[in-house]
Write a structure and sequence with these properties.
This protein is an alpha/beta fold. The longest helix has 15 residues.
Amino acid sequence: MKIKVPKSFDLNVKNSESVARIAAAAKNGGVKAALMIPKQKPIYDKLHLAYNLKRANEENFNLFVAIEGIHDNKLSEISILKNKGASAIYINSDEDMNLIKRVFEYAEFLNIPIFINPNNKALSSGVMNDSEMAYSLGVSGIPNYAESIEVAKIYELSHHFKAKVVFQSITTKESIEILKNRPSNIFIDVCIDNLYFSDEMLKDFNTLYKTFPPLRSEEDKEALLNACKEGIVDFISSNHIATNQKDVPFEEAQEGISKLDIFTQLAYSLPLPYKTITKLISTNPAKLFNFEIKEEIEIEFKKTPVDVSSFASKGKNCPYTTLKAIIV
C-alpha cells in the first residue's frame, strides 16, 4: 500500500552537529522543517542565533531556533532575540522558579512558545530508567518521579499564564496522567524512541539504547502509545542527537540516538493509524508555528533494513534495524 502524506516538522533536533548535516539528514527523513533545541551548545545571544539562522538560509532549510530562556542563572534577552528571529524559548524545569516565572511573562507578552525539559537534575544522576533492569545491571537509575514532579510543578505555574507551553519528551505514565486534562495552551511532546523501545533493550549493556530522557518500562511505553491513539499527545518528535561515542563502558557512553535521516519513515512504522501520525508529526507542529507544509511525500508500507552508512548525519548511533514504511 502507498499513501501520500505531508512532510514532517520535527520539534526536537538537538544542535549536536552542523546545520548543513541537519538539513541533509532532514531531507533524507522527509522532514520539511525542524526546531533546533540548544541542548548540546548554547544559544542565548544574538551571535549564536544569527549563526544558526544564516547557516540554515545557506542550506535553504526551514530551521526554527529555540533560544535558552535562562543562561548561567540569568534571564536571556528574550524580546531582542525574538525580534532577531528566535521561534521558541527552551528552559529546564529545575531552574530558579522566579526566573522561570519571568520567562512565562515574556512568552505570554511576545506570543512565543516555551519548550520545557521536565527533569530534576538532582534526581537524575543515573544512567538509565530506575527499574529491576538497572538493579540487575548494577547501575544507578533515574526514577519516573524525576520527571513527573517537575511536570506537576510547571503545570501548576502554567495555570497562571496564557503562554503556549510544550512539555518536551514526556516518558512516563504519571506525567500523562497529570497533563491529560490540560487547557488548550498546554501541549505534550513524546520522543519516538519511547514509543518503540523500553528499558529491556539495555539488558546487555547496549549503549546504542542509552539516551535521555531514558527509555522507560514497557508499561510506560504502552501508556504513551495509548495517549497518542486517544489524542492526548500533541506531537511526536525525534530527539535527534548525533554522537559516535558509544563504543565505551556503559556509564561513560554519551546519551542520544540518531534518527533524523529516517524520522518520517519511523513514524509511519509505528502501530498507530497513519492519519494520527500525520497529525502528530506534521499538522500539529506546523500549526504551533503557523507554518504551512505544502510538500507531500509518498510512503510505501514495505519492510526494509536501516542502513546507517547512508545517513547524512554524522551520528551513526542508531539501534533501529528495520522500517515498515519507506519514502518512495
